[in-house]
Protein 1
Amino acid sequence: MNEPTTLYIIRHGKTMFNTIGRTQGWSDTPLTREGEKTILYLGLGLREIDFKEAYSSDSGRAMQTARIILQEHQNGANIPYNTDSRIREWCFGSLDGGYDGELWGVVPRILAYKNYEDMMTNSISYKELADAIITADTANWAEPYDKIRDRVWSGFKDIAYHREKHGGGNVMIVSHGLTISFLMSLIDNRLPMQIALENGSVTKLIYENGKFTIDTVNDTHYIDKGNAIFSTT
């Protein structure tokens, strides 16, 4: 009999761009020392979870996060690990790498809102966000909504289906804030946009017979647990 298939989806550790407030989609910077320390704690907090497989996006910050977690895991050397480009962050085109204020300054104006707070109060959709980013992108690199939806959904669902087909169990996945939030909206479209997931937070999904169920969102207790372990060693 199969075990339940559970995805532990982790937002990567805090990076240089996260720290100085720059937009980080397909652009990439490494984890800061603070970011590395937080992920080390996370790895200690997760070290006894029986992961059958591990995945990350192919972005450097996600791969760095996955490696740190696996290094701290009691069986990390034996957990199969692969990257998947489909679970990357959204691409922000010419806004990638710019300060957050540029992205969140122009997008509300395109959507006819006064500012970011006004836009979020009115609960815009992810499609509206994607369309606005395309309008703002002067390089024509940003992805259309349908392409983002198809790659993100197929990426996570294929990982879950593969694990269920091979007996179920726990899967560790390192991805990105907006991508994780977007995935949850595809599972339950009643959820508000949640683009402020904490670095190193865990969002847990259960997958059974082709259907995802959201268990926990933005859970940081594994970091706290690992910090306590680290403090006593």
Note: The first helix runs from residue 16 to 20.
Protein 2
Amino acid sequence: MGRIDRASRVIAAPPATVYGALLHRESLEEWLPPDGMRGRIERWDPRPGGGFRMVLTYLDSAGSPGKTSDATDVVDVGFAALVPGERVVQRAVFEADDPAYAGTMTMTWHLAATDAGTEVTVTATDVPPGIDQAVHEAGIASSLANLASYVEAGD
């Protein structure tokens, strides 16, 4: 198994609410892109064996060249497991010519009820070596902060 990147955050919302935001197309487009990016989902099939294709666009690509083009990362994501209120397992493949971004990365979103809401832990395994670990973990943390803002505003 390759490298493992991880981030977690407690979100002031019940697990069912957080789980819903992980499986709602418009929600994902809003909160999943980390700071400095915007996202658009091109294909959506929210079931085990289904998945989605997301185009992430850098708002300023000068210091962060994309994996697919100078300004974009395109990723095909398959849903490997969906356990309501507990876990979402995704298999992500980046569209890139550079072999440093090749392979399938597994992203597991684990939800655990706490007194304060839901602890969301994201674990990325088999991360392609071209993805900088510190940048990736900061990106996951940014997405988690966006998710918290999104679901907490809805309560």
Note: The helical segments are 15-22, 25-31, 133-154.
Protein 3
Amino acid sequence: MERTDRASRLIAAPPAAVYAALLDPDALAAWLPPDGMRGRIERWDPRPGGGFRMVLTYLDATGNPGKTSDATDVVDVGFADLVPAERVVQRAVFEADDPAYAGTMTMTWQLAAAGAGTGVTVTATGVPPGIDQAVHQEAMASSLANLAAHVEAVG
């Protein structure tokens, strides 16, 4: 059975603002890396069939070995589906020599209007088995908290 990791959060910003933060490379590099990491976008093509390449660097790699190198995770992400103010579907492939991190993970960012805000649920399927489920769900929750702080500060 395929593993599914999920995290949700209510964000005090309209769906259009949240969607914009999912498709802005500077915003994405700022909010997507979970606590303890920083990110850099190397390539950006925001359209279905396009995508981006992100380098995630651990601020302290002790006890957190990277998938690509001792301190980094490099991921190539393709945009599979973009529905303005509703959904972003990404297909992520980590650069890794270890087969436990191989494969394509699908990340679906679902946005739903909720009063004056947006309910955001991120669902990951096809998660490589080398990624610990509890750690991954904690990282997704951290990214959602960063996203909320980003869009709520801008709005």
Note: The two ends are 41 Å apart (CA to CA).
Protein 4
Amino acid sequence: MTGLAVVLGVLALATVLGLWRRRRDGRIRPVPGTTTVGVPADATGATPSSALAALGVPAGAVTLVQFSSAYCAPCRTTRRILTEIEDRTGGVRVVEIDVEQHLDVVRELDVWRTPTVLVVDATGRVVQRVSGVPGRDDLVRAIRPLLVGVPS
């Protein structure tokens, strides 16, 4: 009887963890220190990342930075979504970073899984992040307020 209770407990825990991960996967989250529309909440908000600038994240454009790896199947789907957004939306750039070649940046930016997408505003601040495959429409809605005043 104890064995059955243990098995049922493990199954219940696994179900709860699976549902929690599914709920978080692909969800766009604001980075602490910013408001939900990506504008710094105050002068102590997120600061521009020098690591991203060194990797070629352009200044003056809203940039979607994708962290991926060679063997990541969801990364291919994410790449397709981000490329489509870049092609259809003026003022948006996409930069893809291989996590295996840039472990220092991965650690600095607290990237734990691939794909992870960071939304970087025109001033170079990371304002939002997505772990997992983002929804195209959700991502477009999230970056639209950041595009005000950004040249196409």
Note: The longest helix spans residues 2-24.
